[in-house]
Amino acid sequence: MSIFKGEYEHALDAKGRVAFPAKLRKYINPAVQDRFTLVKGLEQCLYLYPEDKWLEVEEKLNQISSFSSEGRMVKRQFLRYAEDISLDNQNRIGLSPKMIELAAMDAKVTFIGAGDRVELWAPEVLDSQTNNVSDEDMQALFEKVLGGISL
Q: What pTM was computed for the model?
């Protein structure tokens, strides 16, 4: 199955529903249909995992020791806001008021394909995260992160 990629912006309605981009739906494994897990991201955004990819995340989380304070904190902070959600008949996802607040969302949501997951951002927050990164900074970051990987 292909990885999620691209950027799409959709309106958030008064009931906290937002259309899931059609161009991202094509990357969902048909076996999981419309089932996802939504969690608070590591930045001020939300991570949306299709069910099959979420099961892989759960396996990794289960390997973290609950006998260390760091392990308990990581599990607690990552799972405390986790929600299982599904697309409705109009291919929308419903965001709880708490998730909307955590990501500082208002009228619009930007969907970013991020490999095995989709990130949901308030457009203003995403801009503040990315506008200050120069081309030179991106080049240095790519070299640091991908330096040993042949593309």
A: 0.89
Give the Cβ contact number of residue 56 at 10 Å: 11
pLDDT single digits (tens) 126-138:
999 888 888 888 8
Residue 43 tokens, joined:
């930045």
Instruction: Give me the CATH topology for the region 7-146.
Output: Chemotaxis protein chec (3.40.1550)
**Sequence letter at residue 11:** A
What SS3 string covers 80-144?
CCCEEEECCCCCEEECCHHHHHHCCCCCEEEEEEEECEEEEECHHHHHHHHCCCCHHHHHHHHHH
User: Residue 14 corresponds to which tokens in the numbers above?
Assistant: 């008064």
CB contact at 8 A, 110 and 121: yes
**Domain boundaries in the chain?**
7-146
Residue 75: strand, helix, or coil:
helix
Taking the chain, what is the end-to-end CA distance rounded to the nearest angstrom?
19
For residues 37 and 111, what is the distance between their CA atoms, to the nearest angstrom? 15
pLDDT in tens, 89-109: 999 999 999 999 999 999 999
